[in-house]
What does this fold into?
Amino acid sequence: MTRVVRRVHLLVEGQTEEVVADAVIRPHLEGLGWVTSLSLVKTKRPAAGPSHKGGITGWAQVQRDIKLLLNDTSLDVLTTVFDYYAFPVDCPGMADRPSGDVYERVGHVERCLAAAVGDRRFRPNLVVHELEAWVFAAADELGQFLGPGLADRLRDDVRAAGGPELVNDGPATAPSKRLLDYCPGYVKTVDGPLAIQDLGLVRLRAACPHLDGWLRAFEE
It folds into this structure.
């Protein structure tokens, strides 16, 4: 029997997302039979020299990369690993988000992004509230190399919020801001990804419902 090859591309926001997607998400998808590739959003393309990568500044930038990637007709799915926190306000769905809980708001934006692109292969995914929420899920693992006091503070925040994905998105209180406040020596591209890898995807998904729902779509 001929094996059907399914291709998925992960478009990620920055270096931290790239590391985690490559080390944690990609192996899982490949274990399901998906052929995976990934790239960072390009922030600008100068007339001479290489493109600058990482960070999202507006919808035109994201839309450009999405359209270029979807020009590849061999691609079955294009998905994203973008933070919901500080997602540009000019992106589809951001201006008319419902007043429900964060999962309703994020789901609304994802549906609007999909509609704006208009290609069934595009499955937008926003991380609630940002990828550092996954680090909060790995509080114990992070504490093993940055100290138990840090782990205690992260666990307290998760408990107060009701889950890692619910740690809020205020400019001074988002997960990434809290981590730097609690531990000024925290290196986001190294410490967080290592803790997430040590936690493992099974336990990460159990703590993060939105992440779990995104991955279930590939399993079904």
Summary: The first strand starts at residue 6 and ends at 12. Residues 45-52 have pLDDT under 50 and may be disordered. The two ends are 21 Å apart (CA to CA). The beta strands are 6-12, 34-40, 42-44, 52-53, 77-83, 122-123, 126-127.
